[in-house]
Amino acid sequence: MEQGYFECNDCDAVIRTMPAAALRVALSEMEASLEIATEKCPACGHVNLFPGFSQMEVYTCRECGKLIRLADGPDIDQIFGPANND
Q1: Fewer Cβ neighbours under 10 Å: the N or C end of the chain?
Q2: Is 38 domain-assigned?
Q3: Structural domain of residue 17, as residue ranges?
């Protein structure tokens, strides 16, 4: 069976996998949900919107392009490396 996936546009991390035939339905469900995460960039103040998500742990600001980490953990560290807590 052919598999499809959703991936992060910024880091290419795979967010969700499923049968390829189910991708269109899953995308429609995400877009139709009332969940929209909003995060204000601490670097530039731009408000970033993420339809289909309830919260973000890491994102790239769509205004200034800075990588913003809102959480730490092994999964995040595996993709982005350890946080720089200077």
Answers
A1: C
A2: yes
A3: 3-80
In a domain, 85, yes or no: no
CA distance 44 to 63: 8
Backbone φ, ψ for residue 78 (5° rounding):
-60, -35
Structure tokens at 22: 């189910």
Using CA atoms, how far residue 58 sits from 18, 29, 37, 74, in Å, is 23, 22, 12, 13
Residue 60 lies in a domain: yes
**Beta-sheet strands, E only, within the chain:** 3-7, 14-19, 36-40, 47-51, 58-60, 67-69
- DSSP 8-state code for residue 52: T
Encoded amino acid at 73, one letter: G
Examine residue 51 and state whether it is found in any structural domain, yes or no. Answer: yes
pLDDT in tens, 40-85: 999 999 999 888 788 888 899 999 999 899 887 777 777 777 777 5
What tokens appear for 56 in the block?
Answer: 């973000």
Instruction: Give the pTM.
Output: 0.56
